[in-house]
Amino acid sequence: MDVNAAVAAAAAIAGVLTGVIAMLAFRWSEREQKRPTRTSLHTDPVLPPGVDTVLSVLRSSAVVLDEADAVVKASSAAYALGLVRGGKLAVEPMLQMARDTRRDGEIRQVELDLPRRGTGRGEALAVSARVAPLGSRLVLLLVEDLTEARRIEAVRRDFVANVSHELKTPVGALSLLSEAVMDASDDPEAVERFAGRMQIEATRLTSLVQELIDLSRVQNDDPLEDAEPVRVDELVAEAIDRCRHQAGTKQITMAAGGTADLAVWGNRGQLAAALGNLVENAVNYSPARTRVGIAARRVNAPGGEHIEIAVTDQGIGISDKDKERIFERFYRVDPARSRATGGTGLGLAIVKHVAASHGGEVTVWSAEGQGSTFTLRLPEAGAARDRAHQQPARSERAGGAGLDEEAGRSTPTSPESTAYETLPAPEVLP
């Protein structure tokens, strides 16, 4: 009996101890769950109220750092720029700024050039970084991408410098010639000679101003707002008529051929100017007693059928290094010849922008001493009209100033694709 009582007492004591241990373990578990962990310190609730919402609508790349330099919050743009990697701020100068701001509470701003993410070459990423304290423990970093703004500013500077130079030349010539006329007032032959030179320079200045106006218009206007079907044969006839006098002076034969009854969709005035510039260049850069041809045809393309208008000459040709730059503003393959013919260096830039704003492109094939073929490719009227009704037209602009200076890279086009020998016999227009 005493043995049984002892066993029962031992069992009771063991049960009580088990219960006490279980209760202590439960309370310890609750205490551990309530204790803030390192992970919970870096989640969104540590941000002041409303900050998360504000950061989500900012255009800047935003990063919030805690006192241990760990990233509490980062926008998707910050990841895209490569600012945040592995939960840490990856740009050392910005990290140092954040530490200095956390120490003294002073707002700091700096502009940096960062390498592109994933590549060690190419254009650097220009950014403006601003660091400010956010509450008592956090630091806010805002980063603006300035790459495009810097590129546009550089283009503006180059454009203004080029325009200033091009305007200064004829204006200076007019000033000198006017002085020469005054000094030769008693010599009628000299006055007549100088007056003739003044007319040439005035015409060159007028052409330059007009082409600057045309370039500004094609870059900033939407050509498809007042678009209409434009017959290609009418554009070709107008371009030939525009250059008939220059061609006749050099005894250059102009020939038109290709597929008949083609039409493109766009602004008639801009398309006529673009094709006219191509034909005029072909005449100006061709030797005497040669031929300039204009041919049109329909081609299949992924976005629908396109119309190709090819302008072929038998001129001096263009070197490979020049082909990369001929669509730049004011770039001339032969500056001496351009001055002799009154060229401004803007004609091909206008062609490039007209083609792009109409959803097309302009390409060039050329070989030195063998001539050149410029091909203007535009969507056919029906397909282009349907796309214009479905969605707004896309025009080529840069930074609101219309000065996008992608050099107009030309895509080589084989001469066989636009050669006249493959087309119907052209109509010769003397």
Kindly summarize this structure in a few lines.
The protein has 430 residues and is α+β, with helices and mostly antiparallel strands. The protein is 46% helix and 20% strand. Among the domains are: 53-145, PAS domain (Beta-Lactamase); 224-429, Histidine kinase-like ATPase, C-terminal domain (Heat Shock Protein 90).
Beta-strand fraction estimate: 15-25%
Class by helix and strand content?
alpha+beta
CATH class categorisation of one domain: Alpha Beta
Give the overall pLDDT as a whole number.
Answer: 75
How many beta-strand runs?
A: 15
Which radius of gyration do the C-alpha atoms yield?
Answer: 36 Å
CATH A-level architecture of one domain? 2-Layer Sandwich
Strand order in the largest sheet:
13-14-12-11-9-15
Which ranges are low-confidence, i.e. pLDDT below 50, for 5 or more consecutive residues? 36-45, 391-430
Rough outline: elongated
Largest sheet: 6 strands, mixed
What is the succession of H and E elements? HHHEEHEEHEEEHHEHHEEHEEHHHEEHE
CATH superfamily membership of one domain? Histidine kinase-like ATPase, C-terminal domain
Question: How would you characterize the overall build of this protein?
Answer:
The protein has 430 residues and is an alpha+beta fold. Among the domains are: 53-145, 2-Layer Sandwich (Beta-Lactamase); 224-429, Heat Shock Protein 90 (2-Layer Sandwich). The protein is built from 14 helices and 15 strands. It has helices at residues 2-34, 38-41, 51-57, 76-80, 92-104, 147-183, 188-220, 232-242, 244-249, 268-284, 320-323, 335-341, 347-357, 381-390; strands at residues 61-65, 71-74, 84-85, 88-89, 108-114, 125-134, 138-145, 228-231, 253-258, 263-266, 291-299, 306-312, 361-367, 371-379, 427-429. The strands form four sheets. A six-stranded mixed beta sheet has the order 13-14-12-11-9-15. A hairpin with a 3-residue loop joins strand 6 (125-134) and strand 7. Helix 7 runs parallel beside helix 13, helix 8 (232-242) crosses helix 10 and helix 10 (268-284) packs antiparallel against helix 13 (347-357). The longest helix has 37 residues, at 147-183. It is elongated and about 150 Å long. The protein starts with a helix and ends with a strand. Mean pLDDT is 75; it is low at 36-45 and 391-430.
